Amino acid sequence: MPDNRSQVPAADAALRILSFLATQRGPVAVAHLAAALGLPRSSAYHLLTVLQQRGFVVHLPEEKRYGLGVAAFELSSGFSRQQPLTRLGRPLVADLVDRIGESGHLGVLHGRDVLYLVEERAPHRPSLVTDVGVRLPAHLTATGRAMLAALPPAQRRALYPDAGSFTDRAGGGPRTYGELKQLLTTVRQAGYATENGEVTPGLGSVAVAVLDHVGWPAAAVALTFSAEHTDEHTWAELAARVSETAAVLSRRISGQFAAAVRE
After folding, report:
1. Is the pLDDT of residue 158 over 90?
2. Signal peptide span per the entry (predicted)?
3. What are the extents of the domains in the chain?
4. Number of CB atoms found within 10 A of residue 179's CB
5. What is the distance, to the nearest Å, from the Cα of residue 156 to the centroid of all Cα atoms in its chain?
6. What CA–CA distances, in Å, run from 4 to 1, 9, 11, 17?
7. Which CATH architecture has domain 5-75?
8. Using a CB cutoff of 8 Å and minimum separation of 24, what contacts does 37-42 make?
9. 82, exposed or middle or buried, with CB in 10 Å at 0-12, 13-18, 19+?
10. Strands of 103-110's sheet, edge to edge?
């Protein structure tokens, strides 16, 4: 994808400012923002003033810091209303299911739950509990584990402050934060997450996180299959196919539409 920064430098810098602010824990000082983005402080002030006038940035005079404004929130709400993840993800998951012959789905993290946006059931495969609109505990599902593994440690810890945060479904899965942390380390090392009978006895899943342009887990793609009739080598092969689809969706939600599933 061509880099057009030199053609519209002000637009590029403004978008970089918004993207940077979106990744921060709170409002930041101009000096910190300018240094992080490699911008002259005078240019940063000018761009922030324009963004403030449009409502995308708010200035906190007592703290001498800038944060995201209401207009930025409205963009986020518009993103949710238009359901781009569902629209972009459904044909990719459907193609994956057609090629592999196992059922697939796409989910997003919603607190400690996974909310499923897409489910494509393969022919002659059993119905799944991961229907569209269903929520399941993230720490028990492959989709949830894939996304939790990509979160910053502090964010994960905030989601699971105590043992009461770990619900049980089929008698398996982590029961403490220490167990979850160890499991997610394995996920990061492997590059994909698994689940074996912890949601539905007899069924297993492999999942890979869909990362956005700043590396945040926007969603996860997964395949579900009979765990009893799938050997270890096949699990890895299925994970590789899921990873390809997740990578395509990651590029597409970042605006890179040239990719195709079979590229």
Report:
1. no
2. none
3. 5-75, 83-253
4. 13
5. 13
6. 9, 8, 10, 17
7. Orthogonal Bundle (1.10)
8. 37/13, 39/13
9. exposed
10. 135-137, 113-120, 103-110, 217-226, 203-211, 193-196
pLDDT tens readout for residues 30-77: 999 999 999 999 999 999 999 999 888 999 888 899 998 877 766 665
Cβ distance 79 to 108 under 8 Å? no
What is the number of residues in the chain?
Answer: 263
Architecture, CATH, for domain 83-253: 2-Layer Sandwich (3.30)
Nearest to 166 by CA among 194, 185, 145, 191: 145
Tokens of 168: 């049980």
Asked if 105 and 92 count as a contact pair (C-beta separation under 8 A), the reply is no
Reported as a single tens digit per residue, the pLDDT across 94-126 is: 999 999 999 999 998 888 899 899 999 988 776
- Give the pTM: 0.69
| Non-local CB neighbours of 257 within 8 Å, separated by 6+ positions | 251
**CA of residue 139 relative to chain centroid, distance:** 15
Q: What are phi and psi of 60, to 5 degrees?
A: -105, 90
DSSP 100-144: H-SEEEEEEEETTEEEEEEEEPPTT----S--TT-EEEGGGSHHH
CA distance 47 to 52: 8
